[in-house]
Amino acid sequence: MTIEVRVPTLGESVTEATVATWFKKPGDAVAVDEMLCELETDKVTVEVPAPAAGVLGEIVAAEGETVGVDALLATLNEGEGAAAAPAAAAAPAAEAPAAAPAAGGASVDVMVPTLGESVTEATVSTWFKKVGDAVAQDEMLCELETDKVSVEVPAPASGVLTEIVAVEGSTVDATAKLAVISAGEGAAAAAPAPQAAPAAAPAPAAAPAKDVADAPSARKLMAEKGIDPAAVQGSGRDGRVMKEDVLKALANPADKPAAPAAPRAPVPAEDAAREERIKMTRLRQTIARRLKDAQNTAAILTTYNEVDMTETMALRSQYKDEFEKRHGVRLGFMSFFTKACCAALKEVPEVNAEIDGDSIVYKNFVHMGIAAGTPQGLVVPVIRDADRMSFAEIEAAIAEKGKRARDGKLSMAEMQGGTFTISNGGVYGSLMSSPILNPPQSGILGMHKIQQRPMVINGEIVARPMMYLALSYDHRIVDGKGAVTFLVKVKEALEDPRRLLMDL
To answer: CATH number of 95-204: 3.90.550.10, 2.40.50.100, 3.20.20.100, 1.20.1050.10?
Structure first.
C-alpha cells in the first residue's frame, strides 16, 4: 500500500515553505512518526514525521524546492515487507535490546514524542519505571523536559521494559530512542531479572558533529551577504544554520559570545560541606536567557499609578456567589484586570504592538498572556482573543490554563503568540515591582498586593483598599504619554467597573 507524505499545515497566513533537509533517502526503512524531512518557512522550521511505518519510496520535492500547503513531498510503501524492516533504521546497532524478547513477543522501541514546533531536543528528567518492570500500554514511563514544558512519555505497548537507552539527565533529540519494551503474549510473565541499575546503560553519546548541510535559503542568503558560515550560530538540528539565524546575524553584526561567568570566590571547607549544587533546569535556563535578552534588546521603562479597588471589590462581593452558580467558575480579580487592559489597549494600540525590523506591527486583537508561577518556574500561557471574551469565559480560561501550567501540561502553542502580559506579584505579597517585558511584546502590567492605606476623599482621610500598578513598556515604540494614558484608562475602569460594561 502506497501512502502519500504531504506538507502539513504551516500556520496562519503561511502558504509555502522550502524543503530544507531530507533525513531519509528512497529505500530507507522508517518508523511511524520518525522525522522524514524538515521544511523552512519565513518564521519557523517544521518537521515532517512519517504517517506510518514502512519504506520510503519516491522523494517528489527535493531539497531547496518551494512547496505549498498539502503539496506531495514523497511516497511511503506500507505492507508486510515494510513491516519487517527495522523499526528505527537510524538507531545504531549497538542500541539493540540487551535482553531477548519473551517468546511470541516483539521488541517495541520507545521514541521521543513530538515536542512541539521548533523544539529539537529535550532532557530526560525522570524515569518512573526501571529495567525489568512490567508496563501497561499508555502507562507513563518517563518525563522529558524541554525549554518550555514537561512532556510525559507513555508506553506504546504492554510488556516488559528491557532496556533504558537514555538515562536521567541525558539530552536527546526529537527522533531519539529512549527505551525498549518486550511486548507480546507472555511478555509480562517473562520479566527478566532486573539488570544493573539504569545508570549502567551506555552513557549518552556526545552531541553529533554537524554533518548535515545548512538550509538552502540560509546558504543563499549568506552567499548574497558575504557572511562566513562559521560566524553564524545555527539553531537547526545538529547545529545547522537556518535562514532566521542568518537574519539574526545580520541584525546584530557586533554580537559576540557572552563572556564566561567569573569563577566563584574560594569557599571555606566548612561552608562548602553545607552547600547543595543542583543543575539549572532547561526551563530555568530559558527564563534567564529570555529575561536578559529583553533587557539587552528593548528600551525598558516603567511607569506607576495606584488604583482604589473599593468599587471592584464591592461588585465582586455582591455577585460572586451568583456568578459561580451560573457559570461554574469563581469570579476573581483577573477578569476585571483583563477586561480593563483590553479596553485600554484599544485606546493606546502601540502598547499592543511589536517591532519587526524597521516596522511597527499593530495587532487588532488581544492575545493576553497571564503569568503563572509553577514549581518549575514562571510560564506565561496565552488566552487568545481575550478582547472578545466575557468575564466568565476569561475566568474559566485562566483557571484551566493555570492548573495545567502547575501540572506541566501546557503545550508550546499555548505559550506563543501573546500580544500583552499581566503579571500578578500581589499573590506573593509584593507591594511594588518593575516587571520585565516578555519579548517581542511592548508592554506588561504588574499587579500588586491590595493594602488598606489612608486616602483623602472629599477632604476627609479614610482607609481605602489600594493597589499599585506598574506598566513596563518598550520606549522604542511607546512614548511616556501613551504609557501614562494606558495606566489611567486601567485605573478608571477598575475604580468604576460599570465603564467596562458600557465600553467606556
So the answer is: 2.40.50.100
